[in-house]
Amino acid sequence: MAHAARISSVVDSLTKAPRNIAFPSKDGVPKPSSEIFGENVFSSKVMAKMLPKPVFKNFIKQLKGNESLDKGTADAIAHAVKVWAIQRGASHFTHWFQPVNDSTAEKHDSFLTLKSNYEEGLEEVTAIDTFSGSQLLQSEPDASSFPSGGMRTTFEARGYTVWDTKSPMFLQDGPHGTAILYIPSVFISYNGEALDEKSVLLRSAEALNRVCVEVLDLISPKDSETPRTKSVHSTLGTEQEYFLIDRALYTLRPDLKITGRTLLGGLPPRHQQLEDHYFGKIPSRVLAAISEVEYELARVGAPIKTRHNEVAPAQFEVAPIFEESMLAVDHNMLTMDALHRVAHRHKLKVLFHEKPFRGVNGSGKHCNWALSTDQGENLLDPTSNPETNNRFLLFLVAVLQAVYEHGDLLRAGIASASNDHRLGAQEAPPGIISVFLGTQLDEVLNAIEEGRPVNHQVAAPQLEEVRVKGTVLDLKVKSLPAISRDLTDRNRTSPFAFTGNKFEFRAAGSKQSPSFPVALLNSAVASVLVRIRDALVKQKGDKPVASDEDQLAVIRAFIATSKNVRFEGDNYSDEWVVEANRRGLANIKKSPEAFKRLLRPENAEMLHRTGVFSEPELHSRYHILVEKYCKDVTIEAHTLLTMIQQLVIPACFAYRRELAEAAANLAQISVGAGPEVDLLNKLTPIVSDLQTSSAELGDLMDKLNDVTDFAALADACSEQVLPGMDKVRGFADQLEGLVADKHWPFPKYTELFFNI
Length: 756
Hints:
Number of strands: 23
Low-confidence stretches: 459-470
Shape: globular
Number of helices: 23
Structural class: alpha+beta
CATH topology of the domain at 36-196: Ubiquitin-like (UB roll)
Strand content: 5-15%
Distance between the termini: 23 Å
CATH class of the domain at 36-196: Alpha Beta
């Protein structure tokens, strides 16, 4: 029966009719993305057209933090967006927010309102569509059922969603041709504590903005020709990796449905070892789905730039254009949602788990982070002469110092039960947070620290076939043009690498919101910039701005104190583990240990001082993460036990019985049954070991039911449950390779990888 279902699903995956959608066109030619980009966004340009000028001016002042949004302005915006949305088919609105559970949340409310009129003693009810400023600004979802980490009790249900004015409202398609107005929001408790991912990100952005502007004021000329920087924000580009598999095959895998990863399954003879999938031709079914995703995202203003095959079979990636971090996070969550919805339409299933398949590369969410001014200048752009670009160097050393002092905090920001399976493997950075700068920038910092000239040819000896001429590569083929060469190479093993004009935080997990790790990074950098500001003030004395010599003195000091975090080699090597320990860098391998670093006094004090987390909020986040870790692992263990007891062992028994009957029948006609008996003898001890290890895991889970301390339970899950699961899986995966295919109850990796 199970085999028949598998075969039917495989055949179905190969015979499905492709899904076609009608892309907007003009004169029979599809419109370019630029013409549909943002058509479903209530942007500032749309607001400027629909609002009276004084109202729009007041809103812009509020957006810049100059004043609070008054009731009249809120009512005017609410009326305008209601008219705009209803004209486009909207029937409902929702305050869309990001609770601390790696997902988004929404409650839909109708624009419909009933109005009563009384004439001659009779009530006449009229249906109208209304949307007030107070409805726009906030809503009241039940807060008791969202993670709160002990800040709220079950009976304390009140919570508020509040419109995030920095993120524009937009429309999403609803059922039957209708639409829904989405209002990006923060989520807070009755007492104002953050219950979401976005609130702390916004706070970190404000802390970073304040001190960046102060530092720039100290190093910028005070003349009328140089415009003063009024604001600075972090930018973010999140490369999103994911797997796509056939939806029918997915439904036959209880582990994938319940936990997001395969708890059983052996590698097929061919998977990723030929290195032929990476950047290979995108399967037509997948390309159709991704194209539809890009169309939907373009309409809501989410700028997807790149799509390609990733390393593992059935693995893919999309990457956006860089945006302000707050907006980039919203768009990343929309990207994940669109991939999920559109994949279903194409009879595919998207997997965001960091390690859905054992033995092949897992998925990350590479967070490309930089700093930009309101003039559009990238503060992390080294230019062609980084050694003389003091502004760049000041912000560079601020990041280095932040990662050095709070690397364990950044590690905590990307810790989860799912990401533990990926970190430190062959496709992801290890648990040691270090920074890669590249040969040239490393040489620049060394030269400044040592007070000597920069050796511009430092990278030349390692390049045999090409000659370095400044930043141009001569390829020695006349038909090929000379190409510009980046200041840095790429180090794919580094968890935090400089990649030309930004840092790539590669360790973040594919299914998590980027809000939390980016908020921690913003906070750490802001904290160090405060000290750089103070050092510049002290260094310059009575001068209006810090001179080049003043700036260089501060830069040199921070180069010296942060140099231990810089590493240019192979982060996977055993030698680096030893060297990192000598340098005092934490090697955090498992999430329970990482979570504790949130509360390390130096980290907690920094997060309190910058105003990003209050003490109750930080303890809440710690408890939420620990509790989620425990629940993730225990759900996996119980799922594995169910699969073994109800499906795998019965399949093994059925096959043993078939072999035994075959051997008996052969013996009756005096034919040797040696092969059948040999296979029976090989199977039997493994089945027994599987039963024994499963019983041991079951007993362990029963004992852990009485553990109420989540910190202790997390340690038990890490040290006992996961090894117990690996032991069970080892025997089950051996049996998968021995039991006849027709008896095996689940789609195997071969079918999951190669039927899309």
